[in-house]
């Protein structure tokens, strides 16, 4: 019994007695049915709920193919999990399978052998401070796979305890894993190959100029991949600021016409009297000021792509001439009678509802159908989930280079504000917000109080104060400073209070005001 871990380690700040019923349930299923799916389901639930694991993974080792495949996990997206294929001896997981020995990495940042194969860890964030534990699933002397976990530790004894707990879980799982591999060894290899191919496919067709891996954006990437091979007319729809021009650029630069010109024209930027000349060109002397022949945008785009932004702002007269170009790929310059033929792709974009405009008679129905051959709708930023943080980090890196201002991270409260905001101005608004915050930032951190008032959320406990009032703003700053201190000192109230220049009692009162619990930051 002395070799078993002491589950109740209250002196370390965590108690593990809650995991005993789940351990018993696992052992019962393993003994009676050997159902690996049920066992792993309990295993991952136990790791997530009772061991404060941020990411958990179970890999299986296929001896015939020599591959180690990520079988089940939590804390990873489908795309990230699809990349979880290792070879014997490769990285931490590969070494555990090769040696049959557990490996503990106290801090991922300091371990050069850590591959980050799935791409789920952000080395510039708190992920770099996580610990990584990987234990083998052994059946006799044969390694069947691994169980690995990531979480934040500030106590070596607690780290050692969790290694022992994971080893017990691996032993409980071993028989079911062996049975599964015997019955499904061929399927495991095929599934690993399918995951690898799906992941490679996703990476291949993700445009380099667009940031984001949310599900709505992955669907957009699939549409881009389908249309780039042809010269089909594309209509890009979406709110202002979502990045319609970036999508148009991705279509052009990934198409066979990528070496040709990519000409952009904003249909709302010029008065109606000038647009026709800009698009189709004019002959010398065709009107006052036409002192020489001038080629229009369609001629300039020959052999490539023309992007017509804000096409819904065109007058009915210009719409009629555009319709002919789409139908016949030909036109005459203003004041000329020579027909000019062009070979190009037309991409149009608008934030207007063209169907309603057709019904109102302000947009030609025949032109709408000519443009709407292959529509792509870009989702607004508020529907893109985690892309908000990805984009924010991208803008921080970009502005750091451009401005010469070193900003290492965005604080947790500030991230919460960014994710809670509705972003009516979409990506363009986020870019402006980050640029402003960079100028106001201090000590390499963007805090919540560096963000515009429109993003300042009411603080818990101050519901009676107006959201834009002085008390609410001061409360937001106080809340963020407390959260940052607790996070920095891993929930240690004494150290956090010292950091803030408060007594432990006063800090406790302030935390109660905002419903904060130090255990959440351990």
From TrEMBL:
<dbReference type="InterPro" id="IPR027417">
    <property type="entry name" value="P-loop_NTPase"/>
</dbReference>
<keyword id="KW-0067">ATP-binding</keyword>
<dbReference type="InterPro" id="IPR029016">
    <property type="entry name" value="GAF-like_dom_sf"/>
</dbReference>
<protein>
    <submittedName>
        <fullName>Vanadium-dependent nitrogenase transcriptional regulator VnfA1</fullName>
    </submittedName>
</protein>
<dbReference type="InterPro" id="IPR002078">
    <property type="entry name" value="Sigma_54_int"/>
</dbReference>
<dbReference type="InterPro" id="IPR058031">
    <property type="entry name" value="AAA_lid_NorR"/>
</dbReference>
<dbReference type="Pfam" id="PF25601">
    <property type="entry name" value="AAA_lid_14"/>
</dbReference>
<dbReference type="Pfam" id="PF01590">
    <property type="entry name" value="GAF"/>
</dbReference>
<dbReference type="InterPro" id="IPR002197">
    <property type="entry name" value="HTH_Fis"/>
</dbReference>
<keyword id="KW-0238">DNA-binding</keyword>
<dbReference type="InterPro" id="IPR003593">
    <property type="entry name" value="AAA+_ATPase"/>
</dbReference>
<dbReference type="InterPro" id="IPR025943">
    <property type="entry name" value="Sigma_54_int_dom_ATP-bd_2"/>
</dbReference>
<keyword id="KW-0547">Nucleotide-binding</keyword>
<keyword id="KW-0804">Transcription</keyword>
<dbReference type="InterPro" id="IPR025944">
    <property type="entry name" value="Sigma_54_int_dom_CS"/>
</dbReference>
<dbReference type="InterPro" id="IPR009057">
    <property type="entry name" value="Homeodomain-like_sf"/>
</dbReference>
<dbReference type="InterPro" id="IPR025662">
    <property type="entry name" value="Sigma_54_int_dom_ATP-bd_1"/>
</dbReference>
<feature type="domain" description="Sigma-54 factor interaction">
    <location>
        <begin position="210"/>
        <end position="439"/>
    </location>
</feature>
<dbReference type="Pfam" id="PF00158">
    <property type="entry name" value="Sigma54_activat"/>
</dbReference>
<dbReference type="InterPro" id="IPR003018">
    <property type="entry name" value="GAF"/>
</dbReference>
<dbReference type="Pfam" id="PF02954">
    <property type="entry name" value="HTH_8"/>
</dbReference>
<keyword id="KW-0805">Transcription regulation</keyword>
């Amino acid at each position: 019994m002395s070799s078993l871990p002491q589950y109740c380690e209250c002196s370390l700040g965590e108690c593990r007695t809650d995991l005993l019923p789940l351990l018993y349930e696992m052992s019962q299923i393993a003994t009676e049915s050997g159902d690996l799916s049920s066992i792993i389901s309990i295993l991952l639930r136990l790791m997530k709920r009772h061991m404060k694991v941020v990411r958990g993974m179970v890999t299986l080792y296929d001896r015939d193919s020599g591959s180690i495949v990520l079988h089940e996990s939590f804390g990873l997206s489908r795309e990230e999990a699809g990349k979880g294929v290792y070879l014997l001896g490769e990285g931490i997981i590969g070494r555990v399978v090769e040696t049959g020995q557990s490996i503990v990495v106290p801090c991922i940042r300091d371990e050069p052998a850590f591959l980050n194969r799935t791409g789920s860890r952000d080395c510039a964030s708190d992920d770099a401070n996580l610990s990584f534990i990987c234990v083998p699933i052994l059946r006799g002397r044969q390694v069947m796979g691994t169980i690995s976990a990531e979480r934040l530790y500030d106590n070596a004894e607690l780290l050692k305890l969790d290694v022992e707990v994971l080893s017990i879980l691996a032993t409980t799982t071993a028989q079911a894993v062996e049975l599964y591999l015997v019955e499904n060894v061929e399927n495991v290899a095929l599934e690993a190959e399918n995951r690898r191919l799906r992941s490679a496919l996703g990476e291949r067709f993700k445009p380099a100029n667009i940031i984001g891996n949310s599900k709505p954006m992955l669907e957009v990437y699939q549409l881009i991949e389908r249309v780039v091979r042809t010269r089909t007319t594309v209509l890009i729809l979406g709110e202002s600021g979502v990045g319609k021009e970036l999508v148009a650029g991705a279509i052009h630069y990934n198409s066979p016409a990528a070496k040709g010109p990519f000409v952009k024209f904003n249909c709302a930027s010029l008065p109606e009297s000038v647009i026709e000349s800009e698009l189709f060109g004019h002959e010398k002397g065709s009107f006052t000021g036409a002192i020489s022949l001038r080629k229009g945008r369609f001629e300039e785009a020959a052999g490539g792509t023309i992007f017509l932004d804000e096409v819904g702002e065109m007058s009915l007269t210009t719409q009629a001439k555009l319709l002919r170009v789409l139908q016949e790929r030909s036109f005459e310059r203003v004041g000329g009678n020579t027909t000019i033929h062009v070979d190009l792709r037309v991409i149009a974009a608008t934030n207007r509802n063209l169907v309603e405009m057709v019904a109102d008679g302000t947009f030609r129905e025949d032109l709408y159908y000519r443009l709407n051959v292959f529509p792509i709708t870009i989702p607004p930023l508020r529907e893109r989930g985690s892309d908000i943080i990805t984009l924010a980090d991208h803008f921080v890196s970009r502005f750091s280079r451009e401005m010469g201002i070193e900003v290492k991270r965005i604080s947790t409260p500030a991230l919460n504000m960014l994710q809670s905001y509705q972003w009516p101005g979409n990506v363009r608004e986020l870019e402006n917000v980050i640029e402003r915050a960079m100028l106001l930032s201090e000590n390499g951190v963007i805090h919540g109080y560096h963000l515009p008032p429109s993003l300042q959320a009411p603080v818990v406990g101050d519901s009676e104060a107006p959201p834009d009032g002085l008390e609410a703003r001061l409360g937001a700053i106080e809340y963020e400073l407390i959260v940052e201190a607790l996070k920095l000192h891993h929930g240690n109230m004494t150290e956090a209070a010292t950091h803030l220049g408060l007594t432990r009692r006063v800090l406790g009162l302030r935390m109660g005001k905002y419903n904060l619990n130090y255990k959440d930051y351990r």
